[in-house]
Amino acid sequence: MHPLLGHTLERIEARDARAGAQLRKFVEGAGPVYAARAQDFFSRFERFLQSQGRSFDYGIECYLKLRETMVWEEMKFLRSGQYSNRSFAEVAERVYRNPDVMEYHLYGLVLAQFLWPDQYHRFSFFCEHFPEYAPDIRRYLEIGGGHGLYAHQAALTLGGRARVDVVDISPSSMELARAMLDGLPVSFYLTDIFDFAPEGVYDFITMGEVLEHLEDPLAMLKRVRELLAPKGHAYITTPANSAMIDHIYLFNNANEIRETLAAGGFRIEKEASMYAKSMPAAQAEALKVALMYAAFVEPR
């Protein structure tokens, strides 16, 4: 096993034996492609942490704290049937304007991309199908670049043949994305996507896990539609029943997500979904288990 991945497992197992055992089962069964991707991503994250005077162990601690807060949010959600937050203003006060909370949350999510099976599943789905679209892409946009995972994969696949732009409203996320994409030909724009004024439309837009952070996801989808070329394509992901400290909009199931995509002017080309816990779909939906949904779409 690659060293950073193995070290991460050992630290998690030392803190929570049961969770560590479940994670080790997933990691050891995920195969060599997964292991190589995780090691590369974790190595880039380690270099970023070192540039901040931090160790990789600090990143693991952030992940563990993120996991603890998520368990608490899940408990509250199952009791109330609602997320803790109702507005962006609440989230801004609770998370975005609180440097300590924002840091552990953001850094913890970096590791979650490869430690949560449902998160890795959506990235693997992107890696599998994005090359089919690459020959026709001359302008690529990522909304909410965050940890830079998808923009990095896109830039490598496009190989310098296309312009790659990343837009994010968060200075902390933008700082991380810049570091994780160091050395690649990517342009960064720290702005609200509704204020973003590009020179032209895009052939492909990626927007991973943004809709659930908004009060009005339909308005965002319509904005994506405006920025997309008439024959362009997009990759959009969002969860259902996924309670976290910065989630606002609750999708109850995949059908609600599909209906919102259609209302936003999109037709689904390919889709994938995975529950956070392994069980029959009907049971998972009844128990409100978190679902990760992803789709390649095109304008209707």
Most strands sheet: 7 strands, mixed
Q: Low-confidence stretches at least 5 residues in length (pLDDT < 50)?
A: none
CATH architecture of the largest domain: 3-Layer(aba) Sandwich
Report the mean per-residue pLDDT as an integer.
96
How many separate structural domains?
A: 2
Count of helical regions: 12
Helix fraction?
Answer: 40-55%
Query: For this structure, what is the CATH class of the largest domain?
Result: Alpha Beta
Count all strands and give the number: 7
Alpha-carbon distance between the two ends: 45 Å
Strand content: 15-25%
Looking at the structure, the CATH topology of the largest domain is Rossmann fold
CATH superfamily of the largest domain: Vaccinia Virus protein VP39
> Pairing-aware structural class of the strands and helices?
alpha/beta
Rg from Cα: 18 Å
Order of strands in the sheet with the most strands?
3-2-1-4-5-7-6
Categorize the overall geometry.
globular
Order of helices and strands: HHHHHHHEHEHEEHEHEHE
Topology of helices and strands:
Blueprint: H1 3-15, H2 17-29, H3 32-51, H4 56-80, H5 88-96, H6 99-115, H7 117-133, E1 139-143, H8 149-158, E2 163-168, H9 171-180, E3 186-190, E4 202-208, H10 217-227, E5 228-240, H11 254-263, E6 266-275, H12 281-286, E7 291-299
Parallel strand pairs: 1-2, 1-4, 2-3, 4-5
Antiparallel strand pairs: 5-7, 6-7
Please provide a written account of the structure:
This protein has 12 helices and 7 strands. It has a 7-stranded mixed beta sheet with strand order 3-2-1-4-5-7-6. The N and C termini lie far apart (45 Å). It has 300 residues and is an alpha/beta fold. The longest helix is centred in the N-terminal third of the chain and has 25 residues. It is globular and about 50 Å long. It has 2 domains: 113 residues, no CATH class; 183 residues, Rossmann fold (3-Layer(aba) Sandwich), CATH 3.40.50. 54% of the residues lie in helices and 18% in strands.
